[in-house]
Amino acid sequence: MTVNSVNGNIVIEGLKNFELAQTLDCGQAFRWSPENDGCWRGIAYGREVRLQRQDDTLTLFDMTEEEFNGIWRGYFDLDRDYGSIIAACEGNELLKNAADYGSGIRILAQEPWEALCSFIISQNNNIPRIKGIIERLCENFGEPIKGGYSFPDASVLAGLTVEELAPLRSGFRAKYILDAARRVASGEIDLKGLKASQYDAARERLMVIKGVGGKVADCTLLFGASHIEAFPRDVWIKRVMSEHFPEGLPAEALPYAGIIQQYLFFYARSGALTGNTP
DNA sequence: CGCCAGGCTTCTA
DNA sequence: TAGAAGCATGGC
User: Which residues have CB under 7 A from strand C?
Assistant: First the structure.
């Protein structure tokens, strides 16, 4: 992989295992969308980003190398060798098929608060509506920036009431959003420390928040704190596990179970397994 | 219209 | 302590 700064853009060549559609629309992040010109546009870390993939070249528009190395290189997980992880799936036919099918997925390193809040909203919900609620959350309480609105800080939401969150139409989740925001804003829950914390302890800590169970905690750790050993169990994964891995994943998959989880989730939802219903 | 959604909390036996 | 009911809202 080579990175160059060309005309104010970042241009990357020789990048393997990175498809924009798979990575940005596989249900791990909710603020990315395709443009009609083939580009993808999203907002994260308080700024709008536009991306384009042509053949072997990835372009990140209007970005300095300093910003790329400081945020986006890690955000897109570009320094991880996904080829070796996919190769480690070869010993099991289902894992191999799923990994091949989702070989362009990378696990994003989202801001922990955005991941936590987004996956609180995701519970018992469908992806189009999750996106709508998050969009209204940002429009109502985020900062206006070029191209849209930032994701609102926990400290901003912590001072609000359930009534004030009504425009989101998030239903019973509003009280959970506020409980999370207050615990984070007060420092009771240290999101910045999640990455360095041990997985088990961090998971238990997050589950103190009302409306945060094992699934939401695992999504927060996987997508917002780079804990790739976290293994979120949603209805799709529960079905795959009970039908195909009643004894759990093969041992060689456990260190990066979260990445395998995304392959299985993406594969199962595509209907490639047995039908298309959980 | 009815079923269900990247679950969790609360109630019940 | 396991299992079921209830939850807000709207996508399909």
Answer: A 124-126, 128-129, 132, 166, 169-172
**B3 C1' closest Cα residue:** A277
Amino acid found at A95? L
CA gap A201, A120 in Å, rounded: 19
pLDDT score recorded for residue A276: 47
Catalytic residues of A: 215
What nucleotide is nearest A30 when CA is compared to C1'?
B6
And the tokens for A240?
């795959």
Q: How many helices (H) and strands (E) does chain A have?
A: 13, 8
Reported pTM: 0.97
- What is the rounded CA–CA span in Å between residue A122 and residue A157? 18
| pLDDT tens track for A53-93 | 998 899 999 999 999 999 999 999 999 999 999 999 999 99
Could you please report the per-residue DSSP string of A226-240?
Answer: --TT-----HHHHHH
Task: Give the span between the Cα atoms of A212 and A218, in whole angstroms.
Answer: 10
Per residue in A10-36, pLDDT (tens digit) is 999 999 999 999 999 999 999 999 998
* Residues 236-255/A with CB < 7 A to strand B: 236-237
Q: Please, where are the H alpha helices in chain A?
A: 20-24, 65-67, 73-75, 82-87, 93-101, 112-122, 127-141, 154-158, 174-185, 199-206, 214-224, 235-244, 257-269
The token duo for A108 is 């994003």
List the nucleotides on chain B closer than 7 A to a protein CB: 4-9
Q: Which nucleotide in the DNA or RNA is closest to residue A264, CA to C1'?
A: B6
Find the nucleotide nearest A166 (Cα to C1′): C8
